[in-house]
Amino acid sequence: MVTSIKGIIALPGSDVPDGESCRGERQVPQSREPDSTPPSSHFFLDQPVEWRWAVAELHVVSALVEKRSEISGQIAELERQINRHQADLVHIDAVLRMYGKADPDAIRAKDISRRSDWFRPGECRNLVYDILRDAEAPVLTRTIAEHIMDAKGIDRSDARVVEQIKRSLRETLRRMSDLERVPMDGAMGWKVGV
Q: Which CATH topology does 123-192 take?
């Protein structure tokens, strides 16, 4: 196949002789030799190891710079929130003093608990009471967690889920002031206080 200088193609099998086109322009035969440097589909792998390490380092450094920037921005925003909350506390303390509360710093800070994905509000506490109410002796934290997972139909084979349940349970037990802690064989047992 040959291509004309103006881009007109003489089709194979046509009665136009080589070197001529349909319009009489001079045609240039296309090169049939393969290019000496074919484009590689593995450009990265074809490069020297030192070059690949340098490029990989650039990607890693770029990702770390981006992550550091993100975390730094989050810290700056949290610091702004802390400053706003501290200013709010100063104003609230001043009003409390005006109404006769001599030492607002003596007011205990309220625990802010995170919502659990596994329990509705108050559900974990109610399950703990149900377990301890029927127990004749103090119950280990591990045993309480197992009973709760069985009651909720939670698969114990996923270690991450088990750890989340135990963390929620520990926070709940810590907040339940009417329970008694009982040391049992190096672990902590619980019973309902009298």
A: Arc Repressor Mutant, subunit A (1.10.10)
